[in-house]
């Protein structure tokens, strides 16, 4: 749930470069069902952004190792947002079988999904009173 006049960032640390990264979001309830979003790389460069969107489904290459931010900004009423994220190795790595040695609850063998230790996700809270709000605490 994203409160009225709030912002929230989902931070993902990638430990491998050149990952095919995808994310999906959809506003499930609240007001006009529209939200603003941005995706930033580890150097805080905006990769994707949009205003007043109801849903989005995007794929990009995470070129460098580090923290990627998926940020949502809500100017209107409280909203419930569906969010999904996945990172995959490039197709070349899939062909040589460099994915998993055995079954994992995170993927099907050969699907190209990363080992869960390769990416971690957390919510970022403001570090000072002047920092922008990132969701309820």
Automatic annotation (TrEMBL):
GO terms for cellular component: membrane. Residues 7-87 form the GOLD domain. It is found in: Membrane. The keyword Membrane applies. Coiled coil: none annotated. Keywords: Membrane, Transmembrane. Pfam families: EMP24_GP25L (PF01105). It comes from the Eukaryota. Residues 100-137 are annotated as: Disordered. Transmembrane segments: none annotated. It is a single-pass type I membrane protein. Belongs to the EMP24/GP25L family. This is ER to transport-related protein. It comes from Trichosporon asahii var. asahii (strain CBS 8904) (Yeast).
